[in-house]
Structure formats: structure tokens, C-alpha cells
Automatic annotation (TrEMBL), chain A:
GO terms for cellular component: membrane protein complex; plasma membrane. Belongs to the ABC transporter superfamily. Macrolide exporter (TC 3.A.1.122) family. This is ABC transporter ATP-binding protein. SUPFAM superfamilies: P-loop containing nucleoside triphosphate hydrolases. Keywords: ATP-binding, Nucleotide-binding, Transport. It comes from Rubritalea profundi. The keyword Coiled coil does not apply.
Automatic annotation (TrEMBL), chain B:
This is ABC3 transporter permease protein domain-containing protein. Keywords: Cell membrane, Membrane, Transmembrane, Transmembrane helix. It is found in: Cell membrane. Its main location: membrane. The chain crosses the membrane at residues 20-38, 255-280, 300-327, 339-359. Residues 259-369 form the ABC3 transporter permease C-terminal domain.
Amino acid sequence: MKNLIEIKDATKSFHKNKETITPLDKLSLDVGRGEFLSLMGPSGSGKTTLLNLIAGIDSPTSGEILINGNDIAKLSRSQLTRWRAQHVGYIFQLYHLVPILSAYENVELPLLLGKWTKAERKAKVMAALDLVKLSDRAQHRPSELSGGQEQRVAIARAIVHDPELLVADEPTGDLDRESADSILRLLGDLAEKHGKTIVMVTHDPKASAAAHRALQLEKGKLVGEGHLLSH
Amino acid sequence: MLPFSYALRNLFRDPARLAQTVGGSALVVLLLVAAVALNQGMDRVLATSGSSKNVILMGKGSEESIERSEVHLEAEAAAATSIRGLDSQLGVSAISGEIFYQAPLETESGNVEQALFRGVLESALLVHSTVRVLEGRFPQSGEVMVGHLAHRKLGVDAEQTAIGKILKFEDASFTIVGIFEAPSTVLESEIWFDRNDLAAITQRDTLSSITLRMDSAEFDDVEIFTFQRNDLELSAIREDSYYEKLSIFYKPIKMMTWVTAALVAAGAVFGGLNTLYAAFAARVTEMATLQSIGFTRGALFVSLIQESLLATLTGTLVAFVTAYFLLDGLTIPFSVGTFSLTLTPMVIGVGLVAGFLLGTLGTLPPAFRCLAPALPSALRSH
Ligand SMILES: Nc1ncnc2c1ncn2[C@@H]1O[C@H](COP(=O)(O)OP(=O)(O)OP(=O)(O)O)[C@@H](O)[C@H]1O
Ligand SMILES: [Mg+2]
């Protein structure tokens, strides 16, 4: 199977006082393995909604979300929770690190859900921190790190259990240009060298340019395909 | 599962909140422990004051109040000769006609306080088997013997009721010549006079009651005597039933302690809940993030409960230590005597259950509210 993600006619709608809001309208999308896809679009166009469906944070009202051939739209809430623990890493705009835990402990969190020994966990955490070039900051609390460093810790946390899929919602939205560039290089490397499939939402054309492919969302529908880089 | 240390460290996230939760639960548990100990103490002293082997004869129609009861003097001798099977020692029947009286008494230090008087003859020691003279001797005319907790009832230091001290009542003075104990009974708070002294001072020519100690005799034998000698107008009641009835009389007071404890505790519980709500509400996004990583709501719930339990059980411990130093062994005077507070296993058990419930049931509402929001919206709120 070539594609990791195959979305077929995914619709997400909410009912609010007799009104129906449809952030995603019969959307179909394929994402290849190891592909780095960027999603752009105006505010409220449904980017986060789509990302949440791909990450198993939310379920569609109708349609299929096939990840690795497995329709996660059919999973229950608790099945989704277990699925996420193994298959996806989520990177947030505001990092969402746990403030009372050190960088090391934050990165270790996904591993606590698996059957690794303490030594195995340590090796994996240090490897992930090494990859984001923060092994020297392992014992630091989030409050002792810069925004860019926090986001790198968050990326280490997203990849430490080696999921095939990474989703990122405006991962550089809160960072200065320099930090943003280093995060984008890191994501690029994760796709190129480590074979991760990445779906990234961004407002920043420069960030989008770092991806292999860019798509535009408008009012819950994909409109036009952007550039194709290096493929 | 999140490691236990996560809960422990979350606890120290906000020291002010920690202090409030620990302090609040300590207050609730302490109040509860005090209320239970108070009720138990009162019940215990009333339950152990009466002996099942003793029967009290009182004036007909005044069974409710031993003070208002009047019994003809000759009833004592009549009972002694008519009732077979009474306990006896050295040929003396265990039968004690007594005058019971309550009046203000003045100590050497000048304190005047309501006191419990019992006018007795030496035969009183035959019926009140728990009484043991600790120091000194039985009083004769112009003398008194005091229970070792009488000073609590009088609200003075123990030295004011030491041997050799003078107690003033009406215009007469009495020297303390003896101190007695009568473990876990109301007698320990009384002041025992020579019966004739008390009769003279109170200008009585009757007794308040006659207490009999049975050996082979049955309650029915005593009751039959009251029927045979209905001219004496006596009514018989078992001593333990007498004190049981007294404890019913104290029900409203016990209710009051419960209501007061409950009101203050409710305030503390709601204050604590509010703090927990605020603390957990600030963690909605963090909880959602942990769920997005793959932690189940159940696992996060367990962690929140662990955190609260740590705080409330610490509070419970603080309450126990405080209770141990402030309450345990404390003697509290009430109208018919003095009872003591004891941290019995039952009291400790109630405190532990309360601390546990505070940490579990008390955590349910804030924890639910923290974990309830749908993931997408919880992740958005920051
Ligand atoms: N729980 C909800 N109930 C009702 N409407 C919702 C809910 N969640 C999202 N929406 C609506 O869906 C639409 C798309 O929201 P979404 O968050 O996906 O937009 P977005 O493209 O990520 O925007 P932004 O760039 O501002 O993050 C919005 O109009 C939003 O109001
Ligand atoms: Mg968004």
C-alpha cells in the first residue's frame, strides 16, 4: 500500500441551535508514506478539524479515515485512545508540555504506555532528545526553556515511541523566524531521513514551502494543490 | 498509567492550594473525630455508670429526677430486712440510702461552681463497687471525700480539691479527707458528704434514693417489696436502666454537636471543593494533551484521585496528631458528671473513612469537570 492516509468523503458537522456548521464537507485526501504535507487556509477553514480527524482526536460525522488501511472512523473513544498511543505523534502550536515535568520526563510520557523497561525508555528518550539536539537540557523544566526549545522537546515527545504519523498544528506559529526555521528543518529531516509521514497545518508560506506538497483548505473543502517539492 | 510521583509532584505545584486542602481536610476530620469522641464519651460514661446488679429505689412519681425524689428514712431498714439475697460484707447488707443534691460550692481559691453532692454512709462503698479510695479516708462529720475528677466539674485546678483543702457550702466548711476514683462513671465528679451533715444543711428528713446491690436476689424481688410496702411509695428501677434513660435525655445535646460539626465541616468541604475546581480547571488542556498522547481518562482520573487522597490523608494525619494532643484524655464536665474523650479505634476509623471519602467523593465533581470536555475543544483552550 502506497498511501499511509486515505480519507474518503469525510464530513464533520456540528448542530448548534438548529443551525448546522460543517467545518469539513465531503473531503477526500490521500497522503503517501514518508510524505510531508502542509495544509494552509484561512482561519476557520477546517484545518484543525481535519488534523484532529487524522490524529484520531476526533471522529468524522460520516466518511472514512483510513490510516494504514485501518478505518479509524469506526473506532470507539477508548479504542482511539489506544490507537493514538501507538500510531501518532501530535505537535501543538503552544507545545503543551507538562510544566511540572522535566524535558526528559515529558519525552518519556508516551513510553509509559508501552511495555518498555526503564533502561529501554532511557535509551529511547535520550535518542529522541539527541535528535532534537537537546540532550544537554534533559533535566530542565519547560519554564527554563525557550519557545523553540520547548517545541523541540514536544517534537521529541511526538517521535519517541516511533509512530509512523506526525501531525502538527501551526508548530511554528509562536516562534521567531530562526527558531521556526530550525523546527521546519527538523520536520523535513524526520520525513526524509526517518520516513515519517507528516501533516502540518500552517499560516506561514515559508513553512509551507518546507513541505513536499501544500494543500489549500477553504470552507471545509480542498481547493487547488500547491507546489510539489523534490518529488 | 501515570507514575505515582506525578500525583505527588502535582500536589506541590501550588503550595497555597496544598495548604488549603490539607488544612481543610484536617479541620473536617478533626471536627468529626471530636464529635464522635464526644458522643462516645458521653454514652460510655452513662453506660458504665450503672451496674446491672444494682437497683435504685426512688420516690414514686419522681423516677425521672433523683434530686426531686424523696424516700422515707425508714425505707432503708425495711428494705434491708425484707429483701432476701442482697449482697453483703461482714454481715452488713449492701444497701445505701443516699441524699443527692446539686448546689454551688466555693473552693479556697474563691471559685463558686455548681457541684454534685452525695450524702452517704460507709455502706455506700458496698453498693458502688467501682469506687476505690485513692488517698485518705472516708469522710466523717465536717469532712468530705471528692472524686478525682470533681475539680473538672468545679472548673478549678486539681490542687483545689487536694486533701486538707476546705470546701464551703452555705455557711459551713468541709475539709477534704479523701480522694476516690470510680473509673468511667459519673461518680468520679461527685463530692461525698457524711449523710447526716448533708441532711442537716439541706434541712431534709428524707433520702433521695436507696441503692441496693443484689447477690442472689432478682429485680422482681425488689419490685415485690415496693408493692408489699406501698405505704412507703417506692418505685424500683435498675441502675443501668436509670443511666440509659439519662442518656436519652442527652440526645438533643448530642444532636447539637453533630449539627455544629456538620455545618463547619460542610463549609470546609465546599471551600476545598472550590479550590480543587479551580486547580483542576487550570489543567484541562494538560489533561487533554495527555489524552492525545494516549493516556485514558481512567488513568488520568486515578492520578487526580491519588493527588487528592495524598492531600486529604495528610490532613487526616494532621487531625489525628492534633486530636491526640488536644483531645485524647480530655475530661469534659456535663450536668451529671464528667466524661472523657478517647481516640478509640472507632473514632480513628471514622476519621480515616472521612479522610478517604474527602479524597475520593470530594474529588469526583472537579475531576469529572476537568476530564469531561471533548478533546478538540479542550486542546484549543489555552
Ligand atoms: N466543537 C465545535 N462546535 C461548533 N463549531 C466548531 C467546533 N469545532 C470547530 N468548529 C467550527 O469549525 C470551523 C473550523 O474550525 P477549525 O478549528 O478547524 O479552523 P482552523 O482552520 O483550524 O482555523 P484557525 O486557523 O483559526 O485555527 C470553525 O468555524 C469553528 O467555529
Ligand atoms: Mg486551527
